[in-house]
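Bump. Still looking for Clavaminate synthase-like protein structure tokens.
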Amino acid sequence: MVLHQSLRKPLVRSARTCRVRSLFTSKPLVHRPLANPTRILMYSDPSPADFKSQIVEADPPSPCIVAGLSSNWPAREKWKSIRDLVTEETADILVPIELGPKNVGYNVQEPDARQWQRVEVRFRLFVELLESLEWEGAAYVSQLSIDEIPSLKADVHLPFPHAPDLAAPPNLWIGTADTYTPIHRDILGHNLLFQLLGKKVIRVFPPSDKEWLYISEEPFLRNTSLIPFDHAFDATRWPRFHEGVKTWYEATIEPGDAVFIPKGWYHSVRALEESISVNSWFL
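Sorry for the wait, here they are.
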């Protein structure tokens, strides 16, 4: 193993198009990079034994990028665009879509928070929306169980020897550039996020940073930060974050990369390009 230092009803087009367009704001968001992240380590093609002993069972575990885990997946060759996922089997599947302004999470608490919505549409219509509408927002198919779509499941090899004991079925994440999942933690188990199309920026924070991350106590936002953007280093609005967060990790992932996020670690994800990812929680 080589270690590198790096980092339920269809949407009616005529009735809903105006509504979809009205969700978004034209106000640009200025992204301020957080200062001095810790670079995420990268491992190349570890064996299952090395993955378990050096990554999962490390004391303490830490986030890392693992290259090569999806090298033999058919998806690596077949999924060159979101359109490639539309088949006779998948076209009419109902998928959950998050619609909102670019680079703003579902946790937004602003007066215009209603601009963020979650709807269900048929998958073919989701792709048509991305290809045909001139809009300023972001759209994201989030946490779609791949077990429900046999033809797509056949293109990814999960579970696999490195993480055989899944805590939940693997999920698909499909979206435009500038989708943003805010800082949150997973409770099901360790997380492997496989990047198959496009690039994403991952930020990871240790569990010890919880008191600085403005974690919500509301049931809907359980385990999620109230900070809705990724330019959160704002001393006036989020002073605890500014003062308390000292050690955190950042990396840009590309097709072929997988990010290991230990159970209980907080993380955010922002898409730089049109993207497809698959994640797997495991024990």
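The radius of gyration is 19 Å.

Edit: fixed formatting.
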